[in-house]
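stage 2 :: seqdesign
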């Protein structure tokens, strides 16, 4: 009876430890899946915004001066524009907000800050820090760029939504592990528990030797007197693709919810290439363009203001540079856009990623003789 009680106590203790560890691993796996799906979406969006050109205008004419250089080349001494915008958009989407302050002519992204919001008077920021440096200055709302995406934390909502998938994923993983696990029967004679040394050998066998035996490709399991282990035939061969399919289906559903939350077409987030052009157009229209508008509006109202805006002094985020353009496939459209006077040659070269020619003739707008004013057509018809 003592032997039976000792084995029961040992197994119950070990089972509790295994359960605790297994639960922690499952929880970690679930959180990693959530983070992987969310970060995949954020990285996709951030990469697209960093490809955009921030066009600057002065008195209605596009110029490429100091302001253009700041937004497109070097916002601060420690980051280029791609790194800067990747971080801005990542913080904006992950934390739902991002603060950018100007220090000595450099645009600095805040790592931490405190905000005091006021309904009528101007809100302000204190304890603004970047890395190990905390700025003593109190920043007014009008002095900073404060990008805020949603009123509700999208990550918190997604985490609550994914909680329902936790049990499903745990069961699928359990089913997968059990379907391919090796199983056997260990017969232990009562003489094997004669003393403390025998008990230690048993613990070593259960905790170490069996683990090494099952993990090894080729192995020999030494047994002591009183032990007999029999492998259950065919257990490892029962694994089927259904368990893997269950896990893949749940994973896809997690990505689907994230795609819906960030307004990304699911095929694009999953890397599918079917109808990629239509999917990309949808992505730009419903995800990237609204985000570009949010960024544009915050920059224009804070760095330019109403009076400067009325004079044609502003900034515009051009999202047309995100899509890769095949010159040969768009050649007929290129010709049509020039021929109708809609764009100059230099303007179209910029949209295709080429450098401008920079000559007077390349900046002009041209029109073929096939086009004329509609009133002229009516006048000629009346005369005849």
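stage 2 :: out
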């Amino acid at each position: 009876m003592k032997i039976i009680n000792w084995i029961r106590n040992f197994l119950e203790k070990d089972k509790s430890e295994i359960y605790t560890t297994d639960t922690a691993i499952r929880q970690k796996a679930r959180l990693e899946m959530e983070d992987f799906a969310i970060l995949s979406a954020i990285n996709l969006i951030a990469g697209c915004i960093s490809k955009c050109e921030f066009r600057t205008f002065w008195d209605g004419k596009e110029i490429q001066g100091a302001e253009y250089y700041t937004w497109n080349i070097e916002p601060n001494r420690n980051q280029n524009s791609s790194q800067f915008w990747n971080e801005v958009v990542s913080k904006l989407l992950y934390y739902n907000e991002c603060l950018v302050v100007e220090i000595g002519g450099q645009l600095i992204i805040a790592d931490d800050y405190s905000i005091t919001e006021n309904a009528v008077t101007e809100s302000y920021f204190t304890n603004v820090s970047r890395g190990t440096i905390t700025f003593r200055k109190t920043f007014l709302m009008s002095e900073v760029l404060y990008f805020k995406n949603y009123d509700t934390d999208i990550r918190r909502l997604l985490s609550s939504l994914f909680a329902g998938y936790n049990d499903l994923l745990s069961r699928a993983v359990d089913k997968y592990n059990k379907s391919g696990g090796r199983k056997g029967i260990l017969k232990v004679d009562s003489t094997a528990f004669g003393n403390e040394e025998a008990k230690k050998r048993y613990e070593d066998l259960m905790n170490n030797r069996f683990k090494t035996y099952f993990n090894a490709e080729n192995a020999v399991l030494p047994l002591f007197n009183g032990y007999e282990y029999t492998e259950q035939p065919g257990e490892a061969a029962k694994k089927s693709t259904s368990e893997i399919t269950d896990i893949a289906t749940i994973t896809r559903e997690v990505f689907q919810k994230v795609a819906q939350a960030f307004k990304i077409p699911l095929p694009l987030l999953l890397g599918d290439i079917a109808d990629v052009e239509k999917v990309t157009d949808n992505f730009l229209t419903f995800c990237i363009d609204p985000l570009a508008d949010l960024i544009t509006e915050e920059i224009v109202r804070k760095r330019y203001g109403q009076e400067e805006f009325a004079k044609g002094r502003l900034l515009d985020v051009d999202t047309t540079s995100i899509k890769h353009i095949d010159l040969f496939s768009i050649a007929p459209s290129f010709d049509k856009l020039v021929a109708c006077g809609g764009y100059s040659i230099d303007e179209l070269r910029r949209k295709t990623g080429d450098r401008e020619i920079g000559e007077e003739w390349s900046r002009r707008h041209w029109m073929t003789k096939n086009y004329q004013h509609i009133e002229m057509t009516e006048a000629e018809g009346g005369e005849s």
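stage 3 :: structure notes
- The first strand starts at residue 53 and ends at 58.
- The two ends are 120 Å apart (CA to CA).
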